[in-house]
Design brief:
22 helices, five-stranded mixed beta sheet, ten-stranded mixed beta sheet, 4 domains, alpha/beta, 656 residues
């Protein structure tokens, strides 16, 4: 007893007893063991203003999240992986993989892909209070800057800065992390676009409120319960499922006619073929064996829901469906049983079809008769005619299947844990993107690359025309992990390797000619020294010894995307009297050093004389143009074009 007291005295903190009392009576004011003092103040406030009450979602950091989503541009550049992108499988690919912080990448994507993405699927970090999620960002605001930007008090600025720099895993931290990413995701979605999001029970309710806030409660399209485990290792209730929330950008533009092929159909067809081989045209024997076959499947198996398809004839598998009339007594006549020759029992409301139609259906063997005339006949509803159904809200997929598939691809177990299911992801992409036009699928928490695998599988099966954009931060793998032992340094390396191996496997199994490659880019932050040089640079002075040098590919990739040309444009190299320009749509980029009057003259002649060369904007990399006279001459000559016979308008854009 004394030892317990001594041990307790060694661990006790000031006010522990008081905190325990508060937690007992005000549990809603605590995040873990931390008291939210502002929430506590509101809880005990006696001067309540009912006029200010309303239904809304609020959390610490919400205005901060809005600010970084809409007002702060990315300071990263897009760097192409030249070695990877130059390979034959990748150099003409329209698929994209970007390594970097997805918030920065989404800000890049909004410049070229706003209103272009058909479908977005994400599996964000689950906030379990462990190592799955801890908020941090790269924005460095002072308290004064944050107060000024958000119009908030010093105390709130302190709380926000503390949350964003302390590796917090509170609900507010998770929501602050997710808000700008979902906000930008909405921007890139097409008007009829859809986003679906995997989540577990820890942030399910918060995510629902957050999406209602961003996408509009009226654009909630439902959710799927994914039964993916059989674990029994939790107190109270063992969670054996996850959630997938669905939102459309605008329900007025998306009718929601989402369908899926019934699962287990191919197995049913295969079973009935074996029954037919065994029993020939003995349909009763086939029916009896089918009934026994269906008994092996539990309710959780999709085949169970099709067990009523237990009959077969020369047309295929069917079930006897209701043939009664929808309007009471509309069609009444005698139907003679083909075996007994007696009049069959009639449905209480009469027959569904006029007599002539019924006679033809009987002739065509589309009516199922009982063994005697005492049984009411039925329609024959064939499985092949009802293969598709509305997208259903419960999915059974053992999570071990996806893990085994990834193990097979990567050659080792647990290189990446808890990957998403390829078939389920493909099913949801196909169900929610009905258009026959090209569909861009975006996943900005791409992890092991399941979404890319699913897209390639759909394309190879001729189930659509899909392109993917995947984003994954270069998060280091855990020390001593299986991934590290197999040579992987970061999560994105695992994802890219998985995509390449999945492409090989799909190509070998289908031999279908689809886009198996992808273009790879890095979203990289500049060095502090480079940023300082750029901030101090005065373009009006153009000191000849001052130089900020970027890789040409980085400049062109970043600027072409910035100008709306995307990340996979066709770039034409234009010879301007020995100087190379880069022509994309109606933009001409001049980024190399050494532009002279001779090259300017060649450019002007080309614009005037060539019908297929019509740039409306000439973009120059200012750091490489340190001669005022050349810049002035270029600008003057471009202005003069408007006075030519064709009245050509070409603007000069200087960037640094």
């Amino acid at each position: 007893m004394i030892k317990d007291a001594l041990d307790n005295n060694g661990n006790v903190k000031l006010n522990d007893n008081k905190i325990a009392i508060l937690k007992e009576h005000f549990p809603n004011c605590f995040s873990g063991e931390t008291l939210d003092i502002e929430k506590f103040k509101k809880e005990i406030n006696q001067d309540i203003d009912f006029t200010s009450e309303g239904y809304e979602m609020n959390f610490l950091g919400k205005n901060y999240a809005k600010y970084i989503a809409d007002s702060i541009d990315t300071e990263t550049v897009l760097v192409p992986n030249v070695e990877h992108n130059s390979k034959n499988i990748n150099n003409t690919s329209e698929n994209i993989y970007i390594t970097g912080d997805n918030l920065d990448v989404l800000k890049h994507l909004r410049k070229s892909y706003t209103n272009r993405v058909a479908c977005c699927y994400i599996d964000p970090p689950y906030n379990t209070g462990g190592d799955d999620f801890a908020y941090s960002d790269s924005f460095k605001f002072t308290k004064d800057e944050l107060q000024d930007a958000l119009g908030i008090e010093e105390q709130e600025a302190d709380r926000i800065l503390n949350m964003t720099s302390s590796k917090s895993s509170s609900h507010s931290a998770w929501l602050t992390f997710m808000y700008p990413r979902l906000y930008l995701a909405r921007e890139v979605l097409k008007e009829d676009g859809v986003i679906f999001i995997s989540i577990d029970e820890n942030e399910h309710s918060q995510l629902k409120f957050l999406c209602d806030d961003i996408f509009g409660e009226e654009n909630f399209a439902g959710e799927i319960i994914w039964k993916n485990s059989s674990k029994n290792d939790q107190d109270y209730i063992s969670m054996q499922h996850e959630y997938i929330l669905f939102y459309v950008k605008d329900k007025k533009k998306n009718s929601g006619n989402w369908t899926e092929k019934k699962e287990g159909i191919e197995e049913i067809y295969k079973a009935f073929e074996s029954f037919k081989e065994k029993h020939g045209d003995d349909w009763d024997a086939i029916h009896t064996e089918a009934l026994e076959w269906y008994k092996q499947f539990p309710e959780s198996n999709p085949i169970y829901s099709s067990k009523h398809y237990s009959w077969m004839d020369e047309r295929g598998v069917y079930f006897p469906s209701d043939i009664s009339g929808p309007n009471y007594g509309q069609y009444r006549y005698d139907v003679v049983h083909p075996i007994t020759g007696k009049v069959c029992k009639e449905p209480a409301s009469g027959w569904r079809y006029p007599e002539g139609t019924m006679k033809q259906r009987i002739k065509d063997n589309l009516v199922h008769f009982g063994k005697t005339h005492e049984t009411i006949p039925n329609n024959k509803t064939y499985l092949k005619d009802t293969e598709y159904q509305s997208l259903t809200s419960i999915k059974y997929r053992d999570g071990r299947v996806a893990s085994k598939q990834l193990t097979t691809l990567l050659g080792a177990k647990d290189i990446f844990t808890n990957p998403k299911d390829v078939d389920l992801t493909a099913l949801l992409i196909k169900a929610t993107t009905q258009s026959s036009e090209e569909n861009i699928v975006l996943d900005f928490f791409s992890g092991s690359g399941t979404t890319a695998h699913s897209v390639m599988q759909l394309n190879a099966n001729n189930e659509g025309n899909y392109k993917y954009i995947l984003v994954q931060i270069d998060e280091p793998v855990k020390k001593g992990s299986v991934a590290e032992k197999h040579g992987y340094k970061t999560i994105d390396e695992i994802g890219r390797e998985r995509i390449s191996r999945a492409a090989q496997a799909i190509k070998q199994s289908t031999n279908v000619a689809i886009d198996y490659g992808f273009k790879h880019y890095y979203a990289k932050m500049l060095e502090e020294s480079t940023i300082d040089q750029i901030k101090d640079f005065n373009p009006n002075l153009l000191a000849s010894e001052f130089e900020v040098e970027f890789d040409k590919g980085t400049i062109l990739t970043t600027w072409m995307n910035q100008d709306g040309h995307g990340l996979t444009p066709t770039v034409e190299e234009v010879n301007l009297g020995g100087y190379t320009g880069y022509y994309v749509h109606d933009y001409l980029y001049l980024v190399d050093k050494g532009l002279s009057q001779k090259h300017i003259d060649s450019l002007l002649s080309k614009i005037v004389e060539e019908k297929n060369f019509n740039p409306t904007s000439v973009v120059i990399y200012g750091y490489n143009f340190t001669d005022f006279s050349i810049l002035t001459q270029l600008e003057t000559n471009l202005k003069q074009l408007r006075y030519e016979e064709k009245s050509i308008e070409v603007s000069l854009i200087k960037r640094y």
